Amino acid sequence: MTDDLRSAGAPTLEDVARAAGVSRATVSRVVNGVRNVDPVIQEAVRRAVSVTGYTPNRAARSLVTRRADAIALVVSGAGVEPGAAEESEDTTESGDGSSFTAQVFADPFFGRVVTGVVNYLRPRGMHPVLMFAESSRAREEVVAYLRQGRADGALVVSTHAEDPLPALIAEAGLAAVLFARPARPVPVSYVDLAHQDGARLAAEHLLGRGCRRTATISGPLDVPAGQARLTGFRDTMARHGHPYIPVVEGQFTQESGEAAMERLLAEHPDLDGVFAANDLMALGACHVL
Fold first, then answer.
1. For the CA atoms of 32, 34, 40, 41, what is the dihedral angle to 10 degrees?
2. Beta bridge partners of 237
3. Distance CA 4, CA 160 (A)
4. Phi and psi for 128 in degrees, rounded to 5?
5. Which tens digit of pLDDT belongs to each residue from 119-166?
6. Strands (E), the chain
7. Domains and CATH numbers, the chain
8. pTM for this predicted structure
């Protein structure tokens, strides 16, 4: 096989078949990942693909595999009450949606989530499709997108306990995984962090530094992550002889961290340690300090 085998136009399956000395059907099976092909023939086809410069047509391939080779990464916000739907859509169009997007991209934790998703999918020839679902209309668009088969499934990151999107996806029978345990039971699989263990480590770190008058800026307490991190911190401090820990509830945002830190300093000016339940609230607390 040589570069002379490259066709004048875009290389086709027939070009690859001629270069590999096999049938077009065999090339199609190899390209689409069908396993019942002799390894020697598979290697010959792969070499021919490299020599000819052939690139599979995704649209044609999806007809065979019934896969989009894409995963929807959906960041979903708070639920919108039926009576507020029109107002929500108006505010989204006038800039509220861009505010939601800006908040998402400002969160370093979301950046780490995206990095993990991309690093897993890319070697497998798959790509994430980033979608935002901050309004009722946007959530309908996400469900329609998935129903159309334009993504093979969704990874949903909810930013609010009242988010209705997980239930909508479950009702539609669509493939999805939630990032973090939902506040209410939903028949959808989820992946979560060891929130209590992380908070325990934070408490032990402060105690190890000699802090004895500590407080915490918790996450929203209607969210399981906020509840678990507060429990982990309180329980650990109590086991070390500190049963009372001042708490101010935050919203996992920088602004709420600033407000909570100002309140803690006003009410407990002798504090010598603070545990903020996420990076953005910690950043807000540091700005005040």
1. -60
2. none
3. 59
4. -85, 145
5. 988 888 788 889 998 888 999 999 999 998 888 889 998 877 788 899
6. 70-76, 127-133, 154-158, 176-179, 189-191, 214-218, 247-249, 273-276
7. 3-65 (1.10.260.40), 70-191 (3.40.50.2300), 195-288 (3.40.50.2300)
8. 0.67
